[in-house]
Amino acid sequence: MNGKLANPAPLGLAGFAFTTWMLSMINAGWFDGKDMGLVLALALAYGGTAQMVAGVLEFPRGNTFGTVAFFSYGAFWWSFALFVYFFGTGVAGGFVGWYLFVWGIFTFYMWIATLRSNTALMLVFLALWITFVLLALGEWGMGSFFHTLGGYVGLVTAVLAFYLSAAEVINEAFGRSVLPIGAPQAGS
Fold it and tell me: Is the pTM above the cut of 0.85?
């Protein structure tokens, strides 16, 4: 054993991206609510659990951002699945809007932290922040347009997260930058 710790971020990003893609297809109107069962299973197994594992693995690496991000979004997916499957009946859409909006607040300050990181990570968090805000506006009764647009921006978010996951795996495997992610910002 060489003592090098594996990078858990591609695992967490892939779990996030896959689950976000599936839910966003429903939010964009490509599929309807009857297809939610697959999203819930994925939210618990990959979006939630794999991100939690990635968060645990980021901790010994001393990566506060990675630990907080992966634990938090893993918990988001667990809470989403529990809410939809067990606890969602009778909850007002306006209250769901607040749930999404507060996740947007969290995502906004996580996005600010990425301003000292690479461009790809910055774009993932920017798109995710916009996704949460649009979905919250839709839940607050501003119109189905916002919910649908949130679904489409969620699809963009998923593609960006998949790209960053792939870049980290492929670049490490090749020992060079095959898929560019943008240099960390000055002072990083």
Answer: yes
